[in-house]
Amino acid sequence: MAAWTNDELDRIGSADELRIAGLRPDGTLRDPVTIWVVRDGDDLYVRSFKGRTSGWFRGAQARHEGRVDAGGVTKDVDFADEGDASVNERLDAAYRTKYQRFGPQYVDPMVAPAAREATLRLTPRS
Length: 126
Description:
DUF2255 family protein; 5 helices; 7 strands; Pnp Oxidase, Chain A; UCP028498; alpha+beta
């Protein structure tokens, strides 16, 4: 399994926004969507504030593969559901800290139960 380099983790983790595109069943990329990204140790995570019904999230679930672009890094990735409660608690804190300047009207939906259920770990594809 491939791992993020420290440079990639730093650049993507510090970027305010990430563009994400899931792969369609035929292997072509969906249109990219801009979302927020947080770092937890050596892992990167994204969430859908609309939960599992969001279009981009459903697209990511089709093949669990796609491409991300943030901080000057473009990478093909695998998407893995994250259901660990302790990880989600750390991610809640990461979202609150990183994006607090946008206010609770934007941050609160990212730490709500629906968003927590739509959390994906990004892993670089080798």
